[in-house]
Amino acid sequence: MVVLSKQTTEQYSYIRNCNKTSAFSSTGIIPVVDLSKPEAKTLIVKACEEFGFFKVINHGVPMEAISKLESEAINFFSLPNNIKEKAGPPDPFGYGNKKIGGNGDVGWVEYLLLKNNQDYNSMRLSVFGQTTDKFRSVLNDYMSAVRKMGCEILELMAEGLNIEEKNVFSKLLMDKESDSLFRLNHYPPCPEMALDNKNGENLVGFGEHTDPQIISLLRSNNTSGLQICLKDRTWVSVPPDYNSFFINVGDSLQVMTNGRFRSVRHRVLANGYDSRLSMIYFGGPPLSEKIAPLPCLMKEKEKSLYKEFTWFEYKKSAYASRLADNRLGQFEIFSAS
């Protein structure tokens, strides 16, 4: 586990706690979709329009695959710092600690960012020595199961939108050139913060942002910290659920639906006493894929809200920005009227 000195907390961002109503009423706010039910496609579309975020149950990802990867992740983050750092520095892939990207963002977090490329990942995971193959095998099993779930969700989404081409979204994740990523985030406990916090403030683990990809598939342990931003800019805490997955609409999906779906702004707050571990699969298209509103979703005389761009162009722009920036801003089309 990473231990950060008390002095280093001064460089991190703090925010005021949400009021208790916002924090505890979120149980009834977060949409829940049972993927085994016939109404799932309708509920997914509604959730994407209103929140850009929802929880899925009966998702089909084996708990064994989840538990094995979580165990391997805990083993990795429990290694001494000098060993973990051999899997870095993040460029942007690999092991990172405190610094999020190269543009000045910091957080109370350490992470391992991996490609959808097992040969590359093996190099980063070589710090495990003889157990590298085990980690790689567990990682492959988990990613395959989560990608399958993500494609099912995207196909239900297409059905709910009455799109004839059922795999219009999912084919981008299944493409052999898909630029999907996988991230393990570990938020160590911060007892100094818990003891010294007299102003009702929380330490930021991962600052507010939207995800640039099509869809994000998140699973975490039973420690709280994740918050999403509602349309009225109210932040609400998401109650943790060990057995479920949380789904984020990404910027690319917002563009493909011409703004009908919203890319959810979210953040993570550090916990004073408990360690938080999250595992996120970011479903992305091939680098050469052109991202633009789908004609089949455009109503008569409806104008595009966004300029067309390739995923490579958008990804490059996103990595050059700060976390809280409006990454879609430079690609928006503003009416002259």
From TrEMBL:
GO terms for molecular function: gibberellin 2-beta-dioxygenase activity; metal ion binding. It catalyses: gibberellin A1 + 2-oxoglutarate + O2 = gibberellin A8 + succinate + CO2. The keyword Oxidoreductase applies. Its EC number is 1.14.11.13. It is an enzyme of class 1 (oxidoreductase). It holds the Pfam family 2OG-FeII_Oxy. Gene3D superfamilies: B-lactam Antibiotic, Isopenicillin N Synthase, Chain. The keyword Oxidoreductase applies. InterPro entries: DIOX_N, IPNS-like_FE2OG_OXY, IPNS-like_sf, Iron_ascorbate_oxido_reductase, Oxoglu/Fe-dep_dioxygenase_dom. Residues 177-285 form the Fe2OG dioxygenase domain. PANTHER family: 2-OXOGLUTARATE (2OG) AND FE(II)-DEPENDENT OXYGENASE SUPERFAMILY PROTEIN-RELATED. Belongs to the iron/ascorbate-dependent oxidoreductase family. GA2OX subfamily. Catalyzes the 2-beta-hydroxylation of several biologically active gibberellins, leading to the homeostatic regulation of their endogenous level. Catabolism of gibberellins (GAs) plays a central role in plant development. Converts GA9/GA20 to GA51/GA29 and GA4/GA1 to GA34/GA8. This is gibberellin 2beta-dioxygenase. It comes from Lupinus albus.
